[in-house]
Design a protein that fits this description.
alpha/beta; four-stranded antiparallel β-sheet; about 25% strand; globular; binds adenosine-5'-diphosphate; binds magnesium ion; nucleotide-binding; transport; ABC_transporter-like_CS; ATP binding; membrane
Length: about 250
């Protein structure tokens, strides 16, 4: 249901993604791992077109865009892909001047033109799902990092995206708060949410992901079922990298 074909991204002379092809079935959970600078964030950002690939084809649900060198995408094409994705960032990035529930309602009201009452109802049910309904009217700055991230997850899910993209969702959190976030993501995975997560958090990756993709210097160097990649990686270098996460 998500298909990346030969996605390349260059920043000037620097080729950051070198012909990535991946196919992510509906309901699958994929962990992107690999050394810093390998291209994990850039890959996630190309899936929702926060970064436009230099070339390649991206298909999500029934939207497909193909980039050729020097080509551009229309606003409509970008929207057709972006509407189908939700993104969670390492540093939460909640709107500081909006309450928890207003953060979750925002895109429904401003992008999808939902009436406020209906948006509030959906936002409240999402806050319940992430265990944050009791903080619906709180300001982000008064909440712990784990609470803020759970609200950010609810916000990303509000428009019912086809895929939830998470860029190191637990990296900014102490272990106890990270565990709250892992629990929420694990629950979403059990419910069949399609997810792609870049992470250095072995617990997150090994508890939730079915599939692991190892990205190094802009290329996929190893991929397979999570068990296999974690317990018996094909490459010596992957084995050494995984050892650094433990
Ligand atoms: P990771 O998330 O795996 O640490 P990134 O995707 O952040 O890797 O970075 C991959 C490479 O792309 C790095 O060399 C980084 O410096 C470069 N890069 C990322 N974003 C930009 C940008 N906006 N402009 C120029 N170079 C970038
Ligand atoms: Mg990154």
């Amino acid at each position: 249901m998500i298909e990346l074909s030969n996605i390349t991204k260059r920043f000037g002379e620097n080729e950051v993604l070198s012909g990535i092809s991946l196919s992510l079935p509906e309901g699958s959970v994929t962990a992107l791992i690999g050394p810093s600078g390998g291209g994990k964030s850039t890959l996630l950002r190309t899936i929702n077109l926060l970064e436009v690939p230099t070339s390649g084809t991206l298909a999500i649900g029934d939207a497909t865009v193909t980039l050729t060198e020097g080509g551009r995408l229309s606003r409509g094409q970008i929207q057709s892909i972006r509407q189908q994705t939700g993104m969670v960032f390492q540093n939460f990035q909640l709107f500081p001047h909006r309450t928890a529930i207003e953060n979750v309602m925002e895109s429904l009201v401003t992008v999808q033109n939902w009436p406020a009452a209906k948006a509030r109802e959906r936002a409240m049910s999402l806050l319940e799902k992430v265990g944050m309904a009791h903080k619906a009217d709180a300001w982000p700055a008064t909440l712990s990092g784990g609470q803020q991230q759970r609200i950010a997850i609810a916000r990303a899910l509000a428009p019912s995206p086809k895929v939830l993209l998470c860029d190191e969702p637990t990296s900014a959190l102490d272990p106890e708060l990270a565990a709250e976030v892992v629990d929420v993501l694990a629950q979403l995975a059990r419910e069949g949410t399609t997810m792609v997560m870049a992470t250095h958090d072995l617990r997150l990756a090994s508890q939730i992901a079915e599939r692991v993709v190892v990205l190094e210097s802009g290329g996929v160097v190893e991929t397979g079922p999570a068990r296999q990649v974690f317990d018996a990686p094909e490459r010596e270098r992957t084995k050494r990298f995984i050892a650094t996460l433990k």
